[in-house]
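Data follows
____________
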Amino acid sequence: MTVLCVLIIAEDKGPVAEAGPDIAVNLPTRLVVLNGSASTDDRGIVSYQWEHVSGPKATMMVCMSHGCNNRIKEHLSYTAKL
C-alpha cells in the first residue's frame, strides 16, 4: 500500500498598516487618539506598535490593542508610524 501526503503551504502576505488620515489639532486641545484598527493581516493581527518618527517627543499615554492616546505638548508638527 502506498500513502501519498500532500502539504499545501499558504503564502503569508504580511500585514497592511492603516493608521488613518492625518489629524489636525488646534490647541488648547492636547489629546490625540491614534487609531490603527483598519489595519489587516491575512493571518490575524497579534499586536500593534506605534513609533515616534519626528517632531518633539509627545507623551504616549494609553495604548490599547489598536491605538494610542497621545498628549501634545506644543503647537508643532508630530509624526507617528504604525
